[in-house]
Amino acid sequence: DNIDCNWHNVDVTVTLTASDTGAGVNKTYYSYSIDGLADPSTEYTAPFTITADGTYIVKYYSTDKAGNAEPVKTAVNQVKLDKTAPVIVITSPLDNSYTNQSSITLTGTVDGVAFSETRALTTEGANIITKTAIDQAGNTGSASITVYKDTTPPVTTNNIDGNWHNTDVTVTLIASDTGAGVNKTYYSYSI
Fold it and tell me: Residue 191's pLDDT is what?
């Protein structure tokens, strides 16, 4: 057989070769299954292709024209097929979130297995954070979020003119922030 021990991300075609120095090969039978319990019962007439993801055990045997049958053989290597890219879910931080820190802890799962890693935020403003995973078969999966770094505080201005007034004075506060935006403005006054 031509089965190697590697993972594949495309359909795998299996070729079986039989020889007999006496009467000559009559037929070859094969089977493949994930559990390895299937007995060879399909006649081999040409290479066969395995198309579904999984790890398959291949069994086969041949008969000769004199009616002799060799014992059933199990391929030394299994057919390992994985055409599915890893699934990445980022759970923290949330997409389009804001921070004033220079790094974040990126957490989530790759195919259900948890990960946690520190990522630097190198740019003031939008930082696109991407997590990529490559499985044993070479399939690549990725997920991205945007985290906004804002280390500049908001600026608040007022309309206080510094003069004495003989009527009530209404004070207006105007806060602006070019990064994350203004969350809240606090004030106090005293005599």
Answer: 83
Residue 131 pLDDT > 90 = yes
Alpha-carbon dihedral angle through residues 81, 83, 89, 95, given to the nearest 10 degrees: 160
Note the pLDDT of residue 85. 96
Structure token digits, residue 167: 């009527």
- The pTM for the full model equals 0.70
Query: How far is residue 116's CA from residue 107's CA, in Å, rounded to a whole number?
Result: 4
Q: What is the identity of the amino acid at 45?
A: T
Q: Would you place residue 32 in the very low, low, confident or very high pLDDT band (cuts 50, 70, 90)?
A: very high
Q: Are 53 and 79 in contact (CB under 8 A)?
A: no
| C-alpha–C-alpha distance, residues 113 and 57, integer Å | 27
> Distance between CA atoms of 48 and 136, rounded to whole angstroms?
23
What residue has token string 């989530």? Answer: 108
pLDDT at 120 over 90: yes
Cite the beta strand spans of 37-189 per DSSP E. 42-43, 48-50, 54-64, 73-74, 79-81, 88-92, 97-99, 103-110, 113-120, 125-134, 140-149, 155-158, 173-176
CA distances (Å), 135 to each of 81, 90, 106, 130, in order?
A: 11, 18, 20, 16
Report CA Rg, the chain.
34
